Prior knowledge:
- The chain is mainly alpha-helical.
- It has seven helices and two strands, in the order αααααααββ.
Amino acid sequence: MTNVIYLVWARIGQTRRMAQLNLLSQIFVDLIILTFVVYFIGSTETHIPFVYLFHIVLSSIFFTSGMSFLILAFSCLLFGACLVLERYGGFSTGGIFASMPYGGSSELPLRWVVLHYGSVLGIWAGVWYLAGHLADTVRKQDIQLAQANRRLEAALDERMRHMLWTTHALKSPFAAIAANTQLLLNGLCGTLPQQAVAVVERISQRCTRLSKEIQEMLQLANLESSSQQPAKSTVLNADHLLRTMIQQISPTAAKRSIRYSFCLGSGACPCTRGPRSSDDVV
């Protein structure tokens, strides 16, 4: 019945504090129920008192040392109360091992009961200390690993940003060099000597190769980016886009005495009819 209640509670409370409170209440209720189980099986006739260690170790793993010590003290109090009440008549001796030569702690000498209680508490305390020490060590290592992981992720992000900045900074100069080499090879600056042509061709080939490598680095960075999401389709107005581009190039075309005409929309294009001069661009 209590497990059903704890299961419903766990589904309702999702916070860390509620989960810890749920587990803590389970441990306290289980210890109280376990005390009755220990009595009926035999508090001094068997080794059943050591089942308390399950809850003590569990508390050392999930709670702080102070809270786990509180659970250890509560366990010692419950077991001691069981022995005292059993010996002095609080409980009638009725364990399943009551037919042994002695019928429980009520027939044992007091010093043996005290020795039994002290030995059990000493073992519990030793196990609690070892479990708590190991749990604290693991928690500290986990915190250190989490901090190292955050530093590593920050270093990787910084390296990625630096690589992107560097590749973007190099992309434009290489593109400009490649364009100028094509102008030189096409004779815009006059006829080049054969040796100069060979040098310019090598420059052009290396610029092309480096430009491709830079583009691949940018693509790789985009693939490794955690924020990379599938591209969303967007409806564009091609008419407005083309008119904007034409307006941007109009001043440059006018300075270089380049005449052009355009037509947007359906139907026949009137600007393609009639003779055109060599300077016209459609």
